[in-house]
Design a protein that fits this description.
Blueprint (H helix, E strand, L loop, with lengths): L1 H7 L3 E5 L2 E5 L5 H10 L17 E2 L2 H16 L10 E2 L2 H10 L1
Parallel strand pairs: 3-4
Antiparallel strand pairs: 1-2
Helix pairs in contact: 1-2
C-alpha cells in the first residue's frame, strides 16, 4: 500500500492501529485514491481537508474560551466545516471538561 500511494503522488503515510492515513496535495488526491482503488483498497473516508502547517498551544482561560467559541460555531446552522490550528493537550482538556 505504501509503495502504491507514494508512486501515485502521496506525500506522507501514517499507520495508527488498524487504520492508515495518507496525506497528499489536493492536486494528487484523485490519482492516489484511484491507484489504491485499482489495487483493491477501500476507504472509511477519503476527503480533501485543511491541515494546519503549525499549531498554537492553548492552556487555561485561552483554551476554555476557544472551546466555547468552537462549540458556538458548531451549533450555528450556517456553519458546515470548522478548521483550526489550536492544540490543547489531553491533561488540559481533562481539567477543562471537569470545570464545564
Amino acid at each position: 500500500m505504501l509503495m502504491i500511494a507514494l508512486e501515485a503522488g502521496a506525500e506522507d503515510f501514517e499507520v495508527s492501529g488498524d487504520s492508515y492515513e495518507i496525506t497528499t496535495s489536493p492536486e494528487n488526491f484523485e490519482a492516489v485514491k484511484q491507484a489504491l482503488e485499482e489495487n483493491g483498497f477501500t476507504f472509511t473516508t477519503a476527503e480533501v481537508t485543511m491541515v494546519p502547517q503549525n499549531t498554537v498551544s492553548l492552556t487555561g482561560e485561552d483554551a476554555s474560551k476557544m472551546l466555547i467559541l468552537l462549540e458556538a460555531l458548531e451549533d450555528h446552522d450556517d456553519v458546515q466545516n470548522i478548521h483550526s490550528n489550536f492544540d490543547i493537550d489531553e491533561e488540559e482538556m481533562e481539567k477543562l471538561s471537569q470545570g464545564m
